[in-house]
Amino acid sequence: MAPTTAALAGILLLGLALFQLVLALGAPLGAYAWGGRHHGRLPTRLRLASLAAIPVLALLAAVILARGAWLGDAFADVAGWSIWFVAAYFAVNTLGNFVSRSRGERLVMAPLSLALTVLTVLTAVG
Question: Measured between alpha carbons, how far is 84 from 101 in angstroms, rounded to an integer?
Fold first, then answer.
């Protein structure tokens, strides 16, 4: 099951990375990110934060994909223990999205983050 759950998590993270990229490029989707306080284009500092989030999401995806045996044996040892940090990150992110004042974050990003938490845990134990 780990390869399948890892692949699904990887697809979701690719989608999130693309979402961060369009935010960084100025798409008017600020209601779904960074607390949802900016309903149009994000201010420059948050657009830069969205740009910085992309390599972080790539690193999280790499850990999950390594644990799911998609990256060969090169990262298996590190992925074996670090995936639990990734799962904890997504769990905290899920809580933050569910308590956000932003309706977009509560209705869209919280379930997405919860799905990533579950997929990451399933990959970790699989």
Answer: 28
